[in-house]
Protein backbone atom coordinates (compact mmCIF):
# COMPACT_ATOMS: atom_id res chain seq x y z
CA UNK A 1 0.00 0.00 0.00
CA UNK A 2 2.87 2.37 0.86
CA UNK A 3 4.46 1.61 -2.50
CA UNK A 4 1.24 2.54 -4.31
CA UNK A 5 0.97 5.81 -2.38
CA UNK A 6 4.60 6.72 -3.19
CA UNK A 7 4.12 5.94 -6.92
CA UNK A 8 0.92 8.00 -7.03
CA UNK A 9 2.58 10.92 -5.22
CA UNK A 10 5.58 10.89 -7.57
CA UNK A 11 3.28 10.74 -10.62
CA UNK A 12 1.26 13.71 -9.36
CA UNK A 13 4.43 15.67 -8.63
CA UNK A 14 5.83 15.04 -12.12
CA UNK A 15 2.52 15.98 -13.73
CA UNK A 16 2.35 19.21 -11.72
CA UNK A 17 5.89 20.16 -12.83
CA UNK A 18 5.27 19.53 -16.55
CA UNK A 19 4.89 22.48 -18.92
CA UNK A 20 1.20 22.85 -19.74
CA UNK A 21 0.10 22.24 -23.32
CA UNK A 22 -1.09 25.38 -25.08
CA UNK A 23 -2.12 26.60 -28.52
CA UNK A 24 0.34 28.55 -30.65
CA UNK A 25 -0.90 31.31 -32.97
CA UNK A 26 1.18 30.84 -36.14
CA UNK A 27 0.81 34.53 -37.05
CA UNK A 28 2.27 35.67 -33.73
CA UNK A 29 4.62 32.80 -32.89
CA UNK A 30 7.91 34.10 -31.52
CA UNK A 31 8.85 30.76 -30.00
CA UNK A 32 12.25 29.15 -30.31
CA UNK A 33 13.67 28.34 -33.73
CA UNK A 34 14.57 24.71 -34.31
CA UNK A 35 17.38 23.39 -36.53
CA UNK A 36 14.85 21.14 -38.26
CA UNK A 37 12.20 22.36 -40.69
CA UNK A 38 9.05 23.61 -38.98
CA UNK A 39 5.78 25.11 -40.16
CA UNK A 40 7.30 28.61 -40.33
CA UNK A 41 9.87 27.41 -42.85
CA UNK A 42 7.24 25.86 -45.12
CA UNK A 43 5.11 28.99 -44.82
CA UNK A 44 8.05 31.21 -45.75
CA UNK A 45 9.21 29.04 -48.68
CA UNK A 46 5.67 28.83 -50.08
CA UNK A 47 5.05 32.59 -49.71
CA UNK A 48 8.34 33.50 -51.41
CA UNK A 49 7.68 31.04 -54.26
CA UNK A 50 4.11 32.19 -54.87
CA UNK A 51 5.00 35.90 -54.85
CA UNK A 52 7.87 35.26 -57.26
CA UNK A 53 5.69 33.08 -59.51
CA UNK A 54 2.85 35.62 -59.66
CA UNK A 55 5.19 38.55 -60.33
CA UNK A 56 7.02 36.60 -63.07
CA UNK A 57 3.93 36.51 -65.29
CA UNK A 58 4.37 32.76 -65.89
CA UNK A 59 0.78 32.04 -64.80
CA UNK A 60 -0.81 35.03 -66.56
CA UNK A 61 -2.78 33.30 -69.31
CA UNK A 62 -3.09 35.63 -72.36
CA UNK A 63 -6.65 34.37 -72.92
CA UNK A 64 -7.65 35.47 -69.42
CA UNK A 65 -8.58 31.89 -68.47
CA UNK A 66 -7.02 30.13 -65.51
CA UNK A 67 -4.26 27.65 -66.21
CA UNK A 68 -4.76 24.06 -65.07
CA UNK A 69 -1.79 22.86 -63.02
CA UNK A 70 -0.83 19.37 -61.88
CA UNK A 71 1.51 18.76 -58.96
CA UNK A 72 4.30 16.44 -60.01
CA UNK A 73 6.93 14.98 -57.73
CA UNK A 74 8.58 17.10 -55.04
CA UNK A 75 11.56 15.12 -53.74
CA UNK A 76 12.56 15.22 -50.07
CA UNK A 77 16.38 15.18 -50.05
CA UNK A 78 16.69 16.08 -46.37
CA UNK A 79 17.58 13.97 -43.33
CA UNK A 80 14.06 14.53 -42.01
CA UNK A 81 10.89 12.61 -42.65
CA UNK A 82 8.68 15.32 -44.07
CA UNK A 83 5.58 15.34 -46.22
CA UNK A 84 6.24 17.58 -49.21
CA UNK A 85 2.48 18.24 -49.42
CA UNK A 86 3.07 20.66 -46.55
CA UNK A 87 4.78 22.90 -49.12
CA UNK A 88 2.75 22.16 -52.25
CA UNK A 89 -0.62 22.52 -50.53
CA UNK A 90 0.24 26.04 -49.38
CA UNK A 91 1.33 26.94 -52.92
CA UNK A 92 -1.82 25.44 -54.42
CA UNK A 93 -4.10 27.31 -52.04
CA UNK A 94 -2.39 30.65 -52.76
CA UNK A 95 -2.46 30.13 -56.52
CA UNK A 96 -6.13 29.14 -56.45
CA UNK A 97 -6.96 32.27 -54.45
CA UNK A 98 -5.00 34.38 -56.93
CA UNK A 99 -7.49 33.44 -59.65
CA UNK A 100 -4.65 32.51 -62.02
CA UNK A 101 -4.44 28.74 -61.55
CA UNK A 102 -6.60 25.75 -60.68
CA UNK A 103 -5.10 22.39 -59.76
CA UNK A 104 -6.30 19.13 -61.26
CA UNK A 105 -6.69 16.15 -58.96
CA UNK A 106 -7.60 13.84 -61.85
CA UNK A 107 -3.96 13.04 -62.71
CA UNK A 108 -0.72 12.76 -60.78
CA UNK A 109 2.63 11.02 -60.74
CA UNK A 110 1.16 7.96 -59.01
CA UNK A 111 -2.30 8.14 -60.59
CA UNK A 112 -5.24 10.37 -59.78
CA UNK A 113 -4.77 12.37 -56.60
CA UNK A 114 -8.49 12.06 -55.96
CA UNK A 115 -9.48 8.53 -56.93
CA UNK A 116 -13.14 9.57 -57.11
CA UNK A 117 -12.39 11.18 -60.50
CA UNK A 118 -12.06 7.68 -61.92
CA UNK A 119 -14.50 5.81 -59.71
CA UNK A 120 -17.43 8.12 -60.45
CA UNK A 121 -17.01 7.43 -64.18
CA UNK A 122 -17.45 3.72 -63.56
CA UNK A 123 -21.12 4.49 -62.95
CA UNK A 124 -21.70 4.97 -66.67
CA UNK A 125 -24.23 2.49 -67.97
CA UNK A 126 -24.99 1.29 -64.44
CA UNK A 127 -28.78 0.92 -64.44
CA UNK A 128 -28.97 1.70 -60.71
CA UNK A 129 -27.91 5.33 -61.32
CA UNK A 130 -29.70 8.17 -63.07
CA UNK A 131 -27.37 8.61 -66.04
CA UNK A 132 -28.19 12.31 -66.41
CA UNK A 133 -26.13 12.96 -63.27
CA UNK A 134 -23.19 10.74 -64.18
CA UNK A 135 -20.09 12.47 -65.59
CA UNK A 136 -19.86 11.91 -69.32
CA UNK A 137 -16.79 11.22 -71.44
CA UNK A 138 -14.53 14.11 -72.35
CA UNK A 139 -15.22 16.32 -69.31
CA UNK A 140 -11.88 16.10 -67.46
CA UNK A 141 -9.48 18.99 -68.07
CA UNK A 142 -5.88 18.13 -68.99
CA UNK A 143 -3.22 20.18 -67.20
CA UNK A 144 -1.34 22.99 -68.90
CA UNK A 145 1.38 23.30 -66.26
CA UNK A 146 3.28 20.97 -63.93
CA UNK A 147 4.86 21.96 -60.60
CA UNK A 148 7.83 19.86 -59.49
CA UNK A 149 10.71 20.36 -57.12
CA UNK A 150 13.15 19.25 -54.49
CA UNK A 151 13.95 20.12 -50.87
CA UNK A 152 17.68 19.80 -50.16
CA UNK A 153 19.50 19.83 -46.82
CA UNK A 154 23.21 20.55 -46.33
CA UNK A 155 24.96 20.55 -42.92
CA UNK A 156 28.19 22.43 -42.23
CA UNK A 157 30.40 23.07 -39.22
CA UNK A 158 30.97 26.80 -38.70
CA UNK A 159 33.52 27.46 -35.96
CA UNK A 160 31.92 26.09 -32.76
CA UNK A 161 28.42 25.82 -34.26
CA UNK A 162 26.60 23.96 -36.97
CA UNK A 163 24.92 25.53 -39.96
CA UNK A 164 22.02 23.76 -41.63
CA UNK A 165 21.01 24.94 -45.08
CA UNK A 166 17.70 24.06 -46.68
CA UNK A 167 16.97 24.81 -50.32
CA UNK A 168 13.40 24.73 -51.62
CA UNK A 169 13.75 24.32 -55.39
CA UNK A 170 10.66 24.53 -57.59
CA UNK A 171 10.07 24.33 -61.34
CA UNK A 172 6.95 25.12 -63.34
CA UNK A 173 6.86 23.32 -66.70
CA UNK A 174 4.68 24.16 -69.71
CA UNK A 175 3.37 20.69 -70.61
CA UNK A 176 2.75 21.62 -74.25
CA UNK A 177 6.35 22.56 -74.95
CA UNK A 178 8.10 20.73 -72.09
CA UNK A 179 9.94 23.95 -71.25
CA UNK A 180 10.45 25.27 -67.73
CA UNK A 181 8.64 28.63 -67.68
CA UNK A 182 9.56 29.47 -64.08
CA UNK A 183 12.10 28.29 -61.53
CA UNK A 184 12.79 29.37 -57.99
CA UNK A 185 15.12 28.49 -55.14
CA UNK A 186 14.39 29.67 -51.62
CA UNK A 187 17.22 29.11 -49.13
CA UNK A 188 16.53 28.82 -45.41
CA UNK A 189 19.74 28.91 -43.37
CA UNK A 190 19.93 28.11 -39.65
CA UNK A 191 22.93 28.30 -37.36
CA UNK A 192 23.02 26.97 -33.82
CA UNK A 193 24.52 24.68 -31.25
CA UNK A 194 26.25 21.48 -32.32
CA UNK A 195 24.03 19.76 -29.75
CA UNK A 196 20.86 20.71 -31.65
CA UNK A 197 19.36 17.92 -33.76
CA UNK A 198 18.96 18.64 -37.47
CA UNK A 199 17.08 15.46 -38.45
UniProtKB/TrEMBL annotation:
<dbReference type="InterPro" id="IPR014094">
    <property type="entry name" value="LpoB"/>
</dbReference>
<feature type="signal peptide">
    <location>
        <begin position="1"/>
        <end position="18"/>
    </location>
</feature>
<protein>
    <recommendedName>
        <fullName>Penicillin-binding protein activator LpoB</fullName>
    </recommendedName>
</protein>
<dbReference type="Pfam" id="PF13036">
    <property type="entry name" value="LpoB"/>
</dbReference>
<keyword id="KW-0732">Signal</keyword>
Amino acid sequence: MKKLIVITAVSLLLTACATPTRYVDPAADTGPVTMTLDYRDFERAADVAVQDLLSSGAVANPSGDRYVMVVSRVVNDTMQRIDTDQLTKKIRVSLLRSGKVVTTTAVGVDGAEDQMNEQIRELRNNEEFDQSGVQQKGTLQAPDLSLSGKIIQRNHKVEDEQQVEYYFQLTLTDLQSGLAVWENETPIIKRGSNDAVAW
